[in-house]
Amino acid sequence: MNIGIDKIGFFTPHLYLDMKDLAQARNEDPNKYLIGIGQSKMAVIPPTQDVISMAANAADQILTAEDKEKIDMILFATESGVDNSKSGAVYLQRLLGFKNQVRVVEMKQACYAATAAIHFAHGHIAMNPDSKVLVIGADNARYGLKTKGEVTQGGGAAAMLISRNPRILSIQDDATFWAEDVMDFWRPLGHDEALVDGKYSTNVYLDFFKHVFDEYQAKTGFDISKFDALCFHLPYTKEGYKALKIAIEGADPTVAANLTREFENVRKYSNQIGNLYTGSLYLGFLSLLENANDLKAGMRIGLYSYGSGAQGEFYSGLLRPGFEKQIKHQAFQNVLDARQRLTVEEYEKVYNSRIKDEKTRMLDIESDPAKYVFAGVKDYQRQYLRK
Ligand code: COA
């Protein structure tokens, strides 16, 4: 049975910071951020957006009433969840108007969990061919002002509808994975910002890529020439570029050149948004779909998922006949171009204004143009609104 991604939607808030402005404020050479890290802009998450509202805004763009009737499971992957008990998925049940006969659950393994969710959805649909599953990867990547990780912040949500006979990508049963208990990046309970050993994390990410890609080639008999594009988890786009270089080492020059060209399409949106944690790999896939001019049905796309702590996985998907009808060329670029640029001072103010562990405070939602917003807390209960 063909099972995979039938629809994909994405949301990031309306504010951004230009990396040249941040470099100037932090006394760094702009080229360190633009070239060395590979980021030109960074999404800034206003206090009126969190993983739930961003997920609602992403899912709302792709779901029809018929989809909602068929969806019997919502898998919400995040590592910046807003409650230690209640899942992000159950908020969506009401906000987006799903039926009550739906399973709702939140999943966590750093930036990896959305990939696990896709495979769990795959298994569920194999047993229940008529059902559809909504998979969300939503996060707010925060490292702290004036830290080394500051330049690799960002946020947003990817929403994917997983179904039988998908219209975009057919997921292949070829995954290889590797897990190891390491401390490269983590967020202790009570901490609002992640702790990271960035250089070590980059090395683990690349080591895990070698493990899973070597095993993938041994398992399937496919070498690099079988791929038409490779998508990577992109905490910052230079990291994916480093993995790409490993993948194409020793490859036929034409194959290497094609994959390098497609990687520029893969990283185009991430370069302007920053890290997304769970949604990052799938933003790269969307970016490829919307920006590449030469993709064809049947082409094989490789996907490398990585979640610190750590879990790596490599798998592939085949583009489905007619996939191009589901995609609007560069559509999301228009959304990114319409965002409002903040000064560093404004960004720092926004950064410090989020609600944290407060009993009651309502927010000014008028300044946020998004359809779904986080309006504040009343007696520790989070308030979400559809405007
Ligand atoms: N022009 C071009 N490149 C420059 C430069 C300049 N003027 N100045 C520095 N660079 C390059 C460096 O050579 C380096 O490249 P390399 O990685 O290919 O060696 C890169 O820019 C980064 O410089 P570096 O000095 O290593 O930066 P840093 O100490 O500030 O750390 C990170 C950068 C990415 C490690 C740090 O931002 C971080 O920890 N981020 C979080 C990463 C993360 O999220 N990991 C976990 C999720 S998987």
TrEMBL record:
Q: Which domain of life is it from?
A: Bacteria
Question: Which stretches make up the Hydroxymethylglutaryl-coenzyme A synthase C-terminal domain?
Answer: 268-356
Asked whether the UniProt record includes Transferase among its keywords, one would answer yes
Known EC number: 2.3.3.10
Q: Where is the Hydroxymethylglutaryl-coenzyme A synthase N-terminal domain?
A: 2-164
What CDD domains does the entry give? init_cond_enzymes (cd00827)
Instruction: Kindly identify the residues recorded as the active site.
Output: 79, 111, 233
Q: Name one GO biological process term.
A: acetyl-CoA metabolic process
**Family of the protein in this entry:** Belongs to the thiolase-like superfamily. HMG-CoA synthase family.
What protein name is recorded for this chain? Hydroxymethylglutaryl-CoA synthase
Which species is the source of this protein? Candidatus Ligilactobacillus excrementigallinarum
